[in-house]
Amino acid sequence: MTRMLIRNGRLIDPSQGIDAGMDLLIEDGHVAGLEERIDAPPGTEIIDASELVVAPGFIDMHAHLREPGEEQKETIATGARAAAAGGFTAVCAMANTVPVNDDPSVTRFIIEKGREAGGARVHPIGALTRGRKGEALAEIGEMAREGAVAFSDAPLALTNTLLMRRALEYCRSFDAPVFVHPEDLLLSDSGSMHEGKVSTLIGLKGMPAAAEEMMVARDLILAASTSGRLHITHVSTRGSVELIRRAKAEGQRVSCEVTPHHISLIDEDVAAANYDPRWKMNPPLRSREDREAVLQGLYDGTIDAIVSDHAPHHRDENEMDFADAPFGVSSLETAVSVAIDRLYHAKVLGITQLVRLFSTSPAEILGLDAGSLRPGSVADITLLDLGRRWDVHSAQFISRGRNTPFEGVALRGKPAMTIVGGRIVWKN
Ligand SMILES: [Zn+2]
């Protein structure tokens, strides 16, 4: 039997209502016990977690790992290891690969590559429609049987309303959530940043908040009428937060997520950065008021999870003009730190809320046997050093993507160790 004892940590487990100084014993990859003091049997590997938070493993529900097809940007192996370095014990791989993950053979390929990677666990998200073309449903049932945990055409919205309704109905039979990218493409009209005072001032074409909010409203209506499981990705506007808050108050079963960049940056930062494409994402960095609403949504529980929306790009693409550059940032290795710095240290959220957003809630949304340190649980564990100060240097990223707006930024808080199935896969 292999044994590991994590000693003297501050154990935070929202699933059991625990915030206490405790030792945690792992036996053969599972949590064997939590006590104020555990005496280790001989031969036990001891980890000193003094000054560290010990939490159930963090789960990133939304990342683009690029393989198959765009291995110059990222591979499943580099993505899974970058996720582990960022404090995640599991990462979900979006379906917009080449070929698209719309078929059980691609789903199986991603799972096998994920197992070989030796980093975070990799859970594939299957495409909702064949080829992400929005015309016919993909092989959802077969992908679900193969191990796909959710279904999504992100970063594309499904414009066909009838097909969206069928998708919600069909996924309900597998109890699988539908992850939607809320964007009315006609309204966002090839804009490159948030439509507002700043976009007008600097002369860039804007994407209005209404482009997101209309689709949030549509999908909430469709989900209510089908009892389907709707998950809204990267909520970024005040109107979206309000719509979701109201739906939840009415008892609707809906979940949503935000990214670390939308809680920390705003459209004014795009101007301040001189239109550097590393500040270009979809949804775009919104206004100060929108960010306030997102922070309020995190605080009051309207927002369920924080995800990286890791979208690595090749260096050539980072040297393009703002308007032509692709959307997205490389964020697996900064997501948790940015959240600790800008939410916990800024006194927006307590540490238990933060752990819930990264671990307990994502496990519930995805229906994974994870997100808890109850005895008997699989030993997926994230250790955090809340006080550790560091500067972001993308040259040190494990990820192949170096496109980050946090280059050179000083952050307080860093993942200290990532344990998957009782095995240390990353140590800072
Ligand atoms: Zn995405």
Q: What small molecules are bound in this structure? A: zinc ion
**Could you tell me the number of beta strands?**
18
Cα shape: globular
Average per-residue pLDDT, rounded, comes to 96
Query: How large is the share of residues in beta strands?
Result: 15-25%
Uncertain residue ranges? none
Q: CATH architecture of the largest domain, please?
A: Alpha-Beta Barrel
Here the CATH topology of the largest domain equals TIM Barrel
Distance between the termini: 27 Å
Q: Report the biggest beta sheet as strand number plus sense, adding barrel if it closes.
A: 8 strands, mixed
Which structural class do the helices and strands define? alpha/beta
Task: List the defining traits of the structure above.
Urease, subunit C, domain 1; globular; 428 residues; alpha/beta; TIM Barrel; 23% strand; 18 strands; four-stranded parallel beta sheet; binds zinc ion
Describe the structure.
This protein has 428 residues and is α/β, with parallel strands linked by helices. The protein folds into 2 domains: 3-53 and 378-427, Urease, subunit C, domain 1, CATH 2.30.40.10; 58-366, Metal-dependent hydrolases (TIM Barrel, Alpha-Beta Barrel). It is built from 14 helices and 18 strands. The strands form 4 sheets. Strands 1, 2, 3, 4, 5, 16, 17 and 18 form an 8-stranded mixed beta sheet that branches. It has a 4-stranded parallel beta sheet with strand order 6-7-8-9. A 4-stranded parallel beta sheet has the order 10-13-14-15. α8 links the parallel β13 (230-232) and β14 (254-258). α4 (161-172) crosses α7 and α8 packs parallel to α11. It is globular, with a radius of gyration of 21 Å. The model has no long low-confidence stretch (mean pLDDT 96). The chain binds zinc ion (ZN). Zinc ion (ZN) binds at residues 62, 64, 94, 154-155, 309, 311.
